[in-house]
């Protein structure tokens, strides 16, 4: 269930764009992923470095090559707030799959997307993904959390 705040017509267009983006991610289609990103996208992803600027199609291809088969995914607690030409999507994302080294991935993380409409087209301009870390001084990521 998606909670929508704001313009429902624009929300439909955004959800269709995000469905295409998520499908491309799951199918490891780097060109399909970056098609939905603005040229000036800023990403704070789970992987280093602290910030990625630009579409990064080549890096995405490299990351996709570390997966066997498709990358599974689902999102819960989704909220979409839509303005005239900007929108924000938030949710808890479940990523699953098998890496080429045999590691099974079953990870929940937080994601926020900032979107902008230009020339009638919605694009992702900001992506932020994160996992909480232990506040016990260890600094270890809390990778086993589930909603």
From TrEMBL:
<feature type="domain" description="SnoaL-like">
    <location>
        <begin position="14"/>
        <end position="133"/>
    </location>
</feature>
<dbReference type="InterPro" id="IPR037401">
    <property type="entry name" value="SnoaL-like"/>
</dbReference>
<dbReference type="Pfam" id="PF13474">
    <property type="entry name" value="SnoaL_3"/>
</dbReference>
<protein>
    <submittedName>
        <fullName>DUF4440 domain-containing protein</fullName>
    </submittedName>
</protein>
<dbReference type="InterPro" id="IPR032710">
    <property type="entry name" value="NTF2-like_dom_sf"/>
</dbReference>
